[in-house]
UniProtKB/TrEMBL annotation, chain A:
<feature type="compositionally biased region" description="Basic residues">
    <location>
        <begin position="72"/>
        <end position="81"/>
    </location>
</feature>
<feature type="region of interest" description="Disordered">
    <location>
        <begin position="1"/>
        <end position="81"/>
    </location>
</feature>
<keyword id="KW-0479">Metal-binding</keyword>
<dbReference type="GO" id="GO:0005634">
    <property type="term" value="C:nucleus"/>
</dbReference>
<keyword id="KW-0863">Zinc-finger</keyword>
<dbReference type="GO" id="GO:0006338">
    <property type="term" value="P:chromatin remodeling"/>
</dbReference>
<keyword id="KW-0862">Zinc</keyword>
<feature type="compositionally biased region" description="Basic and acidic residues">
    <location>
        <begin position="39"/>
        <end position="51"/>
    </location>
</feature>
<dbReference type="InterPro" id="IPR007529">
    <property type="entry name" value="Znf_HIT"/>
</dbReference>
From TrEMBL, chain B:
<dbReference type="Pfam" id="PF00022">
    <property type="entry name" value="Actin"/>
</dbReference>
<dbReference type="GO" id="GO:0005856">
    <property type="term" value="C:cytoskeleton"/>
</dbReference>
<dbReference type="GO" id="GO:0005634">
    <property type="term" value="C:nucleus"/>
</dbReference>
<comment type="similarity">
    <text>Belongs to the actin family. ARP6 subfamily.</text>
</comment>
<protein>
    <recommendedName>
        <fullName>Actin-related protein 6</fullName>
    </recommendedName>
</protein>
<dbReference type="InterPro" id="IPR043129">
    <property type="entry name" value="ATPase_NBD"/>
</dbReference>
<keyword id="KW-0539">Nucleus</keyword>
<keyword id="KW-0963">Cytoplasm</keyword>
<dbReference type="InterPro" id="IPR004000">
    <property type="entry name" value="Actin"/>
</dbReference>
Length: 160, 396
């Protein structure tokens, strides 16, 4: 998440509190950031696989107790092309279904609509109801202390 | 001829023979930083000594089964000699699926159940249908009910009439237990301690400490008070896996409101997070998800139904799924639906004793039902006719 500064080459100006020199993000960028944050909430794991760096040889160790007796009962699966079907991700499967052409209720029509009630806003720092918006990035805050924390830690620290 | 009932959830698999008790087992694989060579499957979780930074491998993505490799490994373990010792040729299986399951996933599941495992016969059904069956079994006089299944990946609101689901009324909110845990991780990581890797520990925190508030703004005001007046604040002791095996919430008598604790434990101080996180089920717009919350979607779904059925739906609202275990959930749903529903209709919300296993119990009743034989597809049927017979018989 590197921040690229397009308005000035001087790095120190990004950190200054001078309002004339702070960048202001437009609404499209703010929307992109929000979408990015929401997608990050869908992740299973935030760390890397602990087994990722291990050599593949470990998995070749034969296991004599299990495979012999189960081989009698089960038919062998049909090899590689079968396995490829098992590894598609969600997006691919959804596109394959091609739901836009089918009639009647389906996965896409079951989507809940936007709420009729107005959105409530909470301070990004402490979580209590907020009244004010950060000028640069659009985050909410409730008091000047939280604004200070926000500027020091998160405001414009990364861009999409 | 025994029947195995398997409620195949994205987080927990509820499995058991229909004549025995149900077991709730994690439906995924784990990897740990400490024991580098082994991948733990399902309930081998108990063997892990140090669940910090536990890495999850889930076969489900957004609530649908995409990773069959992992799912097969978990099923191998569950059906094998360590667990249920399934004799495939002599067993029927009742297995659950999400709503509007993709046809490619359905076909793959047929193939795996019949060709690889070779079950005698199988029934694929939605989890909510099993819950509805169980509900109608207890309340014979009711004709319709509406099931709110709030699970790990999402929440579905499904109306049932005379045992059949009404597809036009199905509503899906993309907020589930996973979103709540991830959000809690983010806010704790920003405000107090970096816990983004600790899914398992924070899940425990969420289950122990979070509750659904009945009056949101009042609780917010109380949470802002200092010292003893702040009845919402709790301290949670994090496990360090050497002396403290499992995290717990400090009782109020031991809490130190001024100054720091002397002992070396790691403490999380939780105030508004306790009720702001489950609030996302009721107002997903709080974090920017532009969808309706549970009470609104319930009323919306009922309004899409024919006029004469609506009072029946309001009288029979059933809450299931893991998220129903939050304290105060049922009362809050009742309060909000009562406020939104027309005044002449009677509103009644039912929370079963065990919301997680409710569909499983429905499956158990279904297996003992005399009509069960006609509902399943046997292996011979499948081998003669292929996927077509399953599409016809199972109403997914």
């Amino acid at each position: 998440m590197s921040s690229c500064s397009s308005h000035s080459d001087d790095l120190s100006s990004v950190r200054s509190q001078d309002p004339n020199q702070r960048r202001v993000l437009d609404s499209a960028t703010r929307q992109r950031r929000l979408t990015r944050q929401l997608e990050a909430l869908e992740k299973d794991n935030f760390q890397d696989d602990p087994h990722a760096s291990l050599p593949q040889l470990v998995k070749r160790l034969p296991q004599f107790d299990e495979s012999n007796e189960s081989g009698k009962r089960r038919k062998k699966t049909r090899g590689d092309h079968f396995k490829q079907r098992f590894r598609k991700n969600f997006q691919t499967l959804l596109e394959e279904e091609d739901l836009s052409v089918s009639e009647g209720p389906n996965y896409l029509t079951a989507f809940a609509e936007p709420s009729k009630f107005p959105q409530r806003h909470f301070c990004a720092v402490c979580g209590f109801p907020s009244n004010y918006t950060c000028v640069s990035c659009g985050a909410r805050y409730c008091c000047v202390r939280c604004l200070g924390t926000h500027h020091e830690t998160r405001c414009l620290k990364w861009t999409v | 001829m025994s029947t195995l009932v398997l409620d195949n959830g994205a987080y927990f698999a509820k499995i058991g023979y229909s004549h025995e008790k149900v077991s709730v087992i994690p439906n995924c694989q784990f990897r740990s930083k400490t024991s580098r060579l082994k991948t733990f499957t399902a309930n081998q979780l108990d063997e892990i000594k140090d669940p910090s930074g536990l890495f999850f491998i889930l076969p489900f993505q957004k609530g649908y089964l995409v990773n069959w490799d992992v799912q097969r490994k978990v099923w191998d373990h569950l059906f094998g000699k360590d667990m249920f010792k399934v004799d495939f040729a002599d067993t029927n299986i009742v297995i659950t699926e999400p709503y509007f399951n993709f046809s490619s996933i359905q076909d793959t599941m047929n193939e795996i159940l019949f060709e690889e495992y070779q079950f005698q016969s199988a029934l694929r059904i939605n989890a909510g249908s099993l819950s509805a069956h169980r509900y109608f079994h207890e309340n014979n006089s009711e004709l319709c009910c509406i099931v709110v299944d709030s699970g790990f990946s999402f929440t579905h609101i499904v109306p049932y009439c005379r045992g059949r689901k009404m597809k036009e009324g199905i509503c899906r909110i993309n907020v589930g237990g996973k979103l709540l845990s991830n959000h809690l991780k983010e806010i704790i990581s920003y405000r107090q301690l970096h816990v983004m890797d600790e899914t398992y520990v924070i899940n425990q925190v969420k289950e122990d400490v979070c509750y659904v508030s009945q009056d949101f703004y009042k609780d917010m005001e109380i949470a802002q008070l200092k010292g003893e007046d702040n009845t919402v604040m709790r301290d949670y002791v994090l496990p360090d896996f050497s002396s403290i095996k499992k995290g717990f919430c400090k009782p109020r008598e031991e809490m130190n409101f001024t100054g720091k604790y002397k002992t070396g434990e790691q403490i999380l101080r939780l105030t508004n997070e306790r009720f702001a996180v489950p609030e996302m089920l009721f107002h997903p717009s709080d974090i920017g998800i532009q969808e309706m919350g549970i009470p609104e979607a319930l009323v919306n779904s009922i309004n899409n139904m024919p006029e004469e059925m609506q009072p029946h739906f309001y009288k029979n609202i059933v809450l299931t799924g893991g998220n129903a275990l939050f304290p105060g959930y049922r009362d809050r749903v009742y309060k909000e639906v009562r406020a939104l529903a027309p005044v002449e209709y009677q509103v009644s919300v039912v929370l079963p004793q065990n919301p997680i296993c409710y569909p499983w119990e429905g499956g158990k009743l279904l297996a003992e039902n005399p009509d069960f034989e006609e509902m399943v597809v046997t292996r011979e049927d499948y081998e003669e006719n292929g996927h077509y017979v399953c599409e016809e018989k199972f109403d997914i």
